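pinned: reference chain
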Amino acid sequence: MPTQEERGMIFPTLEKSDEKKKEIKALEDKIESLDAKLKTEEQKEISALKKWA
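pinned: its structure tokens
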């Protein structure tokens, strides 16, 4: 049977793991959002260049 101290070492790690997963998911969502914005801007620039060509 693990001591209170040993259990304390295990469970906070699991909690931190969940927090990290949430942080990573939030960052991935942010990256996708920024990537979509960048593609939209690129399309606008390409359209503008085509008008001048």
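why pinned: The mean pLDDT is 85. Residues 39 and 45 are 10 Å apart (CA to CA).
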